[in-house]
Design goal:
heterodimer; A: about 325 residues; alpha/beta; seven-stranded parallel β-sheet; about 20% helix; elongated; B: about 260 residues; Rossmann fold; nine-stranded mixed β-sheet; two-stranded antiparallel sheet; 15 strands; about 30% strand; globular
């Protein structure tokens, strides 16, 4: 075995593109250029990420098209036996969250979840993540001889470098020692919703706007934006979970975020990242979110939305394409 | 049908508040609650038992002995037994060591289905359900929003992701981890049971029973270590305050106009 650092990235088999975020942590950990990068790419994913890696390993298709977590663990275990990875990175997606803990047990190594940043503390890498619903940040180190292993928060890590490696693709067969009993019975596509992570303008409703969801939509339309919501509105069944902002929802980075009737609980604010402009509307200007806002409107949510809609409708250019 | 619910009592972090101006967490009145995802797991088990009176529910938690009153409240519902796995030697266990300890106990139990929550309010790693599955050699699925059917041979359930609702079948025994979005809610304790003595249903298990090796548990058995914690800095902005009168609405409109939004 060479002295080169070997890093394995395990691609998500459902949300293949989310794996890109993982790449952002490699340079802070190991510097530029030196490690050998391996990708374990499952059958469902195309080759769009391959150029970021020196070696891509593709397990022989199982033919079932299923998520077979134990078999995926077999594949990682087999590759680790061959290459003795120094570091294993997994995107913290739905599948990644089931897969990474099992791999960690197989390899008897520690695992840190939802890492957003890494730092080197002398020779020791520290993995940073939030805890207590975003109330606290924790710097966590690994103990023991196993590979450094983490799942990486896909919403908070970004990577934009162009692929640059002459990649070697290897097809390999894993053993059949583990087999899942899980069978997919049906798949139903949910009604099409926009992706609030891609919105430039979000009009976001909280408990103070729960009786006025239609007005949120009207205001978002008038501004050429989309509606998002706090967990309170989602838990009460007023808004779909796909538009929830926050620690347990999505991380959003619009240019304009209008928070209407949202107090600014920490778990909500955790979902607001790199926002250019924040306007908050709240009956109390002492609500926590007001301290984070560029403009604070103290008052009733319905009153604000109706009046602003009326004011916008008086604009001469209203109705022109934006 | 024997169901085991693995649960955790956590600080109610939703009751933390943050003073962004002072950059500090306020947790003066934080209380312990049953983790919301785990509430769904126990609630579903109770719903199953309502349909099949012969079903048996055991609730298991690894926690300090101080959670006893919370566990007793659960046992005042139609739960058959409660087990608190507690030993000073377990203190400081990370998820790896926790799954070792819980796994050791669960290996000794006979059950058809293990129900739990997907993530906890405090750590939110989702490691323990998956690592228990690895320890016990079982299948596991998380983010479950509905369990359509469950018997000793098979479970049928639905998970929700960004684009799809997917329905799966899984052979039992296996591990089903529910999401808060499932909405399964606990019944209220009957008024006459408020002070019911449930001590005969409650068992404490220590390492004297489990015989975990010292290097498998607590800080010695943990493969991760929290080096330090800190409050996250939030970027405050000196926002101008207006009201919903005409002047305020004009100010908002001008603000939006200057930035090209109207």
């Amino acid at each position: 075995m060479s002295d080169t650092t070997h890093i394995l990235v395990v691609q998500d088999s459902e949300q293949c593109g989310e794996t890109t975020s993982v790449l952002s942590l490699i340079e802070p950990l190991y510097g530029e250029g030196s490690p050998t990068l391996f990708l374990l790419a499952f059958e469902a994913c195309d080759d769009s990420l391959f150029g970021h890696f020196h070696h891509v390993y593709r397990p022989k298709p199982s033919g079932s098209g299923m998520i077979d977590i134990p078999a995926m663990c077999d594949a990682v275990e087999d590759l680790h036996a061959k290459f003795n990875f120094d570091c294993i990175l997994v995107p913290a997606t739905r599948v990644g969250r089931m897969l990474a803990p099992r791999i960690a047990r197989r390899l008897h190594t520690g695992l840190v979840a939802d890492v957003v940043e890494v730092k080197n503390d002398g020779d020791r890498p520290l993995m940073l993540r939030s805890a207590y619903s975003g109330n606290i940040m924790a710097a966590i180190g690994a103990v023991g001889d196993g590979p450094l292993m983490m799942s990486v928060h896909p919403g908070q890590c970004r990577y934009s470098k162009a692929p640059s490696f002459a990649t070697q693709v290897h097809h390999f067969e894993t053993g059949t020692r583990s087999k899942s009993s899980i069978r997919l019975l049906s798949t139903e596509k949910k009604p099409l919703h926009y992706d609030i992570r891609k919105s430039d303008i979000l009009v976001s409703g909280g408990g103070g706007a729960k009786k006025h969801f239609a007005l949120l939509t009207q205001l978002a339309d008038a501004l050429g934006g989309e509606v998002s919501a706090s967990r309170k509105l989602v838990d009460q069944g007023i808004a779909p979970r796909s538009i929830q902002v926050g620690q347990s929802g999505k991380i959003v980075s619009p240019k304009l975020y209008i928070a209407i009737g949202i107090d600014g609980a920490i778990q909500h604010v955790e979902g607001m990242q790199r926002i250019e402009t924040i306007i908050s509307v709240n009956t109390s200007s002492k609500a926590p979110i007001c301290a984070l806002s560029d403009l604070v409107v103290e008052g009733d949510a319905k009153d604000f939305m109706e009046k602003l809609l009326t004011r916008i409708s008086q604009d001469p250019q209203q109705g022109e394409s934006r | 049908m024997r169901m085991v619910c693995v649960v955790k009592f956590v600080p109610d972090v939703d009751s933390f508040s943050y003073d962004y101006a002072q950059d500090e967490v306020r947790r003066d009145q934080v209380r312990m609650v049953l983790n919301p995802d785990d509430v769904c797991a126990v609630s579903f088990a109770l719903k199953m038992k309502e349909q099949d009176g012969d079903s048996h529910i055991e609730v298991v938690t690894m926690a300090p002995r101080s959670v006893k009153p919370h566990m007793e409240d659960l046992l005042r519902l139609d739960i058959d037994e409660g087990t608190i796995i507690s030993d000073p030697a377990f203190a400081g266990s990370d998820t790896y060591a926790t799954s070792t300890i819980l796994g050791k106990y669960l290996e000794s139990r006979k059950f058809d289905c293990l129900l739990t929550g997907t993530r906890s309010l405090d750590g939110a790693t989702s490691h323990v359900p998956a690592q228990l599955a690895e320890v016990l050699g079982m299948d596991q699925m998380q983010d479950i929003i509905a369990i359509e059917s469950l018997d000793s041979a098979e479970a049928v359930f639905t998970i929700e992701d960004e684009q799809y609702l997917r329905t799966y079948a899984m052979g039992m025994p296996g591990i089903l981890a529910l999401a808060r979005a499932s909405g399964y809610a606990l019944p209220y304790i009957a008024y006459e049971d408020f002070d019911k003595d449930v001590s005969d249903k409650l068992t404490f298990v220590t390492n004297a029973t489990l015989h975990c090796a010292p290097d498998e548990i607590g800080l010695s058995g943990s493969l991760t270590q929290v080096v330090h914690t800190y409050a996250k800095h939030h970027h405050t902005r000196a926002g101008k305050i207006v009201h919903t009168d005409d002047a305020g609405i004009d100010a908002v409109h001008s603000f939006l106009e200057e930035r090209g939004y109207v």
